[in-house]
Each structure stands twice: as structure tokens, then as C-alpha cells.
Design goal:
The protein is mainly alpha-helical. It contains 24 helices and seven strands. Helix 7 crosses helix 24, helix 16 runs antiparallel to helix 24 and helix 20 runs parallel beside helix 24. The protein starts with a helix and ends in a 7-residue tail after the last helix. 33% of the residues are buried.
């Protein structure tokens, strides 16, 4: 049943098209004038009717070439200079001279004809080239925004999914495609609901019944295009409208001058029960330069129209017309009241109204049936088309819409980045995980112990030597030796990475915050092992710590005290065995001086070693902190900084796309 209905409808459409062509023709002539056309019309005229000038040019060249060949053959057969022809001819001189003069004249005439035809062909090609419209040119700001959007998409492909960038990519593709086409034409679509009278308005603007109207719904099953000037074929091809659905308006000098460059497209009903019709409406609306929304007094507040089309296209107000049709059905001042209510609804949709010279949508009321308001719409539409700026404004509005959809993944009102305080805290946490403070204290104790060994009494050094023999030292203080300490250190490293990642991703849009956290996790892999290796290399040097500069003097003083003790003891021993004369005062004094002087020298050296030992410990702690900070910076902070720099770059490009700043941060 459906197939039969579609076939009937197609037959009606074909019959309507044939009727329209028979009544008006492509150039406005009536049926009688068409009957007077020659039996063999030129291919160019046929091509103009079908919209295919290139095929017409190819067909037009074939007869010309064939004619030239025929003339060449005729000329060759009639050439009197042919030897076979001139062998038996009688020549008395005068006749031959006249024949030669006649032949020369014919040859000159043939050359002149060929030159004229070549010049005519060249002129035809030049005229055809002159009819090719110039491509669309974008101004500097729009080109800059498109370049920024292209750069933005390129920088974001590895961070955002393809669905998020799909609309921006579509806008770039459509902008590039539209730029290659005519800049002298403006494609305007007429859209509306079922029964709104958009086909009547389409016919009223064209001045001829092109689009079918009737009671049956839906009436318009496919988009129909009407062009007021030549050179719009590629634009209509872009809309996917076949040649059989392309028309020309009623030829009128006034209308031609007023609407030159207009390409009007009648769309199916946007609320049609046929899904294919709605899909065609959505497809064509994404490609045209402007749109005329036709509403009627009954459906002007339809939720489908406002929620599905007008509200999402609020940013395209400058390339939008809203026409209240069928005002002839409203009595008295009802038309003004309905028009005011329509303006109120448009304002609630966020559509700026072009009133008082401000940019925005044009709102008009008319009756396509009676013609009331049609001249006003034609005048406004003529000014709109004559401005030649609708295509660029449409692309600019598309860029605005794409930027607004991308705002959640680029713009933020918070300050972003990694502060120096967060960096220092991260380095401190890593230093604590490798025990930098404990290593510095151990280095300080080692330096003091070495100084005591160098400046202690021989008897104390002998005791320490004995202890060292029982438990020999390795010359290196282990930073972490136990398994529980290593596990605790690993947990500290992981906590430090999580903390710095949270601070770096704070305030970022979700995709970039996730990228920052992933970069931190990748950098944390193997970080504890790397810190252990660095701690081992940057810890205490192999062997004993360096000795103080005053060590020789202290050693000499301690040796002197030891010599005094030895001399005093030997002196007393000699007196005891009778080898020396008894004299207890001097040896006892020497021994007491050595016994007291030795610890006194050691105590003095210990006091003097506190400062250098402290500096030695701080230096060891600093080296370990720097090593830990360098490892953390190379593995974690630098990748985080790279992600933040990439976000800063895309945010700058996004600011160029929007033409304004994106907030703090």
C-alpha cells in the first residue's frame, strides 16, 4: 500500500514538474513560445534545463568538429591543385589566372571563416569562465578561529575521545567545503511543520508554482532547489539535490536584480511522520547558509520546533528568519498578538531578535496565500543575500556552537598548575622516604667518631680498635636495611605521588585531570627502586669521613701527652728498680700531665669537631635530598609539567576559537 502511494506521489510530482515547465519554462516563456523553438535545440540550452553545462559543452563540440572535417574533405576533393584533377584540363592563361584568383579568394574566405569561428569559440569559453563564481573568502578573524580550532583538535586527539571532537571536525570539514564553493550565492532553506504553508511561500517567492501544495500530508517529500542566477550547481550538488528537482524562478528583471545570488530550498516537514523526511531536513539544515522558519498560528509554539531546532540553533540567530504565515486566518489585531507572543517564545529560546539595528533573527508576518507581506520578505531577503556574508556568519556560528560544546573539556574557572609549594612538598616527601634526615645525622655521628679516633688517647683508640676487630665496619651507613622500613618507604613514595598528582590535576577538566593522574602513575612505576639506587650512590662515601684540618696538631698534642706519660712511667720504673736516683716529683708530674692532658686534648677536639661534623651531616642530607628530588622530578614532575603545558596550549587555542579569555588559570 505504501509503495503504491509513493508511486502515485512521484507521478504527481513529475506531472507537476512537467506542467510547470510547460507553463513557464526555464526562461519564463509560455508554451507557445516553446513550440517555436527549433527542432534541434542547442546542447547548451538542453544543458541549462537539466543543470549540466559540462555535458552540454562536450556535446556542443562534437558537431563542430564533424563539420570541420566535412569541410576539409570537401575542400580537398575540390582543390584544383590536385595533380589528378589538373592533368587533362585546358589552360590558355587567362582562364587559369581567373581560376587561380577565384581559388585564392575562396581560400582567404575559408581562412577568415575559420578564424571567426575560432574567435567565437574562444569568446564562448571566456564567457563560460566568466560565469564561474568566485569562491567564498573568509575574513581574517574567522580564518584565525578556524586555524585555532584545527590546531585545538590536533592537540586533543590523544587526550579526548573521537565523539567529543566529532562536532568540531564536522565544522572544519564543512567550512573547508563551503569555502571552495561560490561566494556569490547564498543558500537559504525554507523549513516548517506540516501545514505551515512553506511550499506556498516558496512558490510565492519564486513567482511560479514549483513546489507542490495540497491537502495531503506530507506534500513535500524531497528538497527542491530554486536558483535565481547561474553558477550555483556545485552548491546544490553539495545539498544532494538531483537535477530533476532543480528549478528556475519566473524570469523578471526586478526579481532577478533583487534576489540575484539566492538559492532557495524547500524542505520536507520537520515533524513529518516519515523518518526519511526528518533526516533530510536535519542533513540539509547543517549545510545551508541561512534558514527561514515558517510557522502558522496553530503550531508556532510547538515544543518540537522550539526544543529540537530553535533553541539549539539560538547562536545562529543572524542567519535565521522566523515567518508567521497564514495571518489572513487571524481576525483584527490577533496577528499582532500572535506575533508578539512568538517574539516572546524566541526570546525564551535565547534567540536574539534583530530589532533596532541589532544583529539577530528577523521576525515577520505574512500570508503566502494572499501575498500580504511577501514584498517585505523579498526586500529583506534581497538585502540579506546582497550582503554576501551569510555563509561566513553561518560558519562563525557553527564555530561558536562547537566551542560551547567543548567548553567543559577545556575551560575552567579555577587556577590550575603545580605551585612551587607543591613541588617542594613532593621533594620533601621523597627525601623522607629515603631517610635523608637520618642519613645526615648518621654522617654527622660518623664524622665525630672519626675525629675522636684521630684525636683520642692511645689507650682509648686501642680499646676501639679491639671493638672494631670484633665487629668490623663496612665504611658505609645503610639508609634502610630492614624489610619493614623498605615497605614503609614504598608507601611514602606512593602517597607522595598521589598527593602531587591530586594537586596538579586540581581544577582541570575531567579529561586533562585524568591524563595528569595517568602520567603520575606511569612515572611512579619503579620510582622506589630508583630512589634506593640513588640513595646508595649519593650516601656516605666509601671509607672513613674526611679528617679535620687541625687533625695534625691534635695528633701531635696527643702524642706529646702520651710521651709524657711514658717518660714519667719509665722514670718511676727506673727509680723502683734502683736504676735511677729516687726523685718522685718530676716523673709523677710528667705522668699526671700526660694523663690529664690526653683527655683534655680529646675533649677540646670534640668541641672543635661539632661545627664541621654538623656541616658534613647537612651536606650529606642535602645531597640525598637533591638526588631524591631529581629522581622525582625526572619521573613524575616533568611528565606532569608536560601535561599541564599541553593543557595550557590547548586552552590558549580554545581562547582563540572563542575570541575571548577562558577564565582564571
Amino acid at each position: 500500500m505504501t509503495a503504491v502511494t509513493d508511486q502515485d506521489h512521484t507521478d504527481e510530482m513529475d506531472h507537476t514538474d512537467r506542467t510547470a515547465h510547460a507553463d513557464h519554462g526555464d526562461d519564463g516563456r509560455d508554451a507557445d513560445a516553446q513550440d517555436e523553438r527549433p527542432e534541434n535545440p542547442s546542447p547548451v540550452e538542453d544543458a541549462e534545463e537539466t543543470g549540466d553545462l559540462e555535458d552540454a559543452d562536450d556535446h556542443a563540440r562534437v558537431p563542430a568538429d564533424a563539420d570541420t572535417t566535412g569541410r576539409t574533405e570537401s575542400k580537398a576533393s575540390a582543390d584544383p591543385a590536385d595533380p589528378e584533377e589538373s592533368t587533362g584540363s585546358w589552360d590558355d592563361g587567362l582562364i587559369a589566372r581567373r581560376v587561380n584568383e577565384t581559388t585564392a579568394a575562396q581560400q582567404a574566405a575559408a581562412v577568415e571563416i575559420r578564424a571567426s569561428r575560432a574567435q567565437a569559440a574562444h569568446s564562448a569559453h571566456a564567457a563560460q569562465a566568466a560565469h564561474v563564481p568566485a569562491p567564498l573568502a573568509y575574513d581574517g578573524p574567522l580564518r584565525s578561529r578556524l586555524d585555532a580550532l584545527r590546531e585545538l583538535v590536533g592537540l586533543s586527539r590523544t587526550r579526548l575521545d573521537s565523539g567529543t571532537l566529532a562536532e568540531a571536525g564536522r565544522v572544519l570539514d564543512e567550512a573547508a567545503a563551503r569555502r571552495r564553493l561560490s561566494g556569490q550565492h547564498t543558500v537559504v532553506a525554507i523549513a516548517g511543520a506540516t501545514g505551515s504553508g512553506k511550499s506556498q511561500l516558496f512558490n510565492a517567492l519564486a513567482g511560479v508554482a514549483i513546489s507542490e501544495t495540497g491537502v495531503r500530508r506530507p506534500t513535500t517529500a524531497a528538497p527542491i532547489a530554486c536558483s535565481w542566477s547561474d553558477g550555483a550547481a556545485t552548491l546544490i550538488d553539495r545539498l544532494g539535490i538531483p537535477g530533476r528537482l532543480r528549478r528556475r524562478p519566473l524570469q523578471s528583471a526586478e526579481m532577478e536584480a533583487q534576489l540575484r545570488g539566492l538559492v532557495l530550498v524547500d524542505l520536507p516537514d520537520h515533524d513529518s511522520a516519515a523518518v526519511a523526511h526528518r533526516e533530510q531536513v536535519d542533513r540539509v539544515l547543517a549545510l545551508v547558509d541561512a534558514v527561514i522558519w515558517v510557522v502558522d498560528p496553530e503550531k508556532y509554539a510547538d515544543a518540537i520546533l522550539h526544543e529540537r531546532y530553535l533553541r539549539p540553533m539560538a547562536g545562529h540567530a543572524e542567519v535565521m528568519f522566523v515567518v508567521l504565515n497564514q495571518i489572513d486566518r487571524l481576525p483584527g489585531e490577533a496577528a499582532d498578538q500572535v506575533l508578539d507572543d512568538l517574539r516572546r517564545l524566541l526570546d525564551e529560546d535565547g534567540i536574539a531578535l534583530g530589532e533596532y539595528g541589532e544583529p539577530g533573527a528577523t521576525v515577520l508576518s505574512l500570508s503566502a496565500l494572499t501575498g500580504d507581506g511577501i514584498p517585505e520578505l523579498r526586500e529583506v531577503l534581497g538585502q540579506f543575500v546582497g550582503d554576501r556574508g551569510a555563509a561566513a556568519r553561518r560558519i562563525s556560528a557553527d564555530v561558536d556552537a562547537a566551542a560551547w560544546r567543548l567548553r567543559p573539556v577545556y575551560a575552567t574557572g579555577r587556577r590550575t598548575g603545580l605551585s612551587e609549594e607543591a613541588r617542594d612538598e613532593f621533594a620533601a616527601r621523597l627525601a623522607d622516604s629515603v631517610g635523608a634526615t637520618a642519613a645526615g645525622e648518621a654522617a654527622e655521628r660518623a664524622w665525630l667518631r672519626n675525629a675522636n679516633r684521630a684525636c683520642g688517647t692511645p689507650w682509648l683508640r686501642l680499646w676501639r680498635w679491639y671493638n672494631d676487630r670484633r665487629e668490623p665496619t663496612t665504611g658505609r651507613l645503610p639508609v634502610r636495611a630492614q624489610a619493614d622500613e623498605e615497605a614503609t618507604a614504598r608507601q611514602r613514595v606512593e602517597q607522595a605521588v598521589r598527593t602531587v598528582a591530586d594537586r596538579a590535576s586540581g581544577g582541570l577538566p575531567a579529561p586533562w585531570a585524568q591524563a595528569v593522574r595517568e602520567a603520575a602513575v606511569r612515572g611512579a612505576q619503579g620510582l622506589p627502586e630508583a630512589l634506593d639506587e640513588l640513595a646508595a650512590r649519593a650516601g656516605l662515601p666509601v671509607g672513613r669521613p674526611p679528617r679535620p684540618g687541625w687533625w695534625p696538631a691534635a695528633v701531635l698534642a696527643q702524642a706529646s701527652m702520651t710521651i709524657l706519660q711514658v717518660v714519667g712511667g719509665l722514670w718511676l720504673l727506673g727509680q723502683i728498680i734502683g736504676f735511677m736516683a729516687p726523685n718522685l716529683g718530676v716523673p709523677v708530674l710528667l705522668m699526671v700531665a700526660g694523663i690529664i692532658g690526653g683527655p683534655l686534648v680529646e675533649w677540646s677536639c670534640r668541641l672543635a669537631a661539632r661545627g664541621p661534623a654538623r656541616r658534613y651531616g647537612l651536606d650529606a642530607e642535602r645531597r640525598l635530598r637533591e638526588a631524591a628530588a631529581g629522581c622525582g622530578r625526572a619521573r613524575v614532575l616533568d611528565p606532569l609539567a608536560a601535561e599541564l603545558l599541553r593543557y595550557r596550549e590547548v586552552r590558549e587555542q580554545y581562547a582563540r576559537v572563542t575570541g575571548a579569555g577562558v577564565g582564571a588559570g
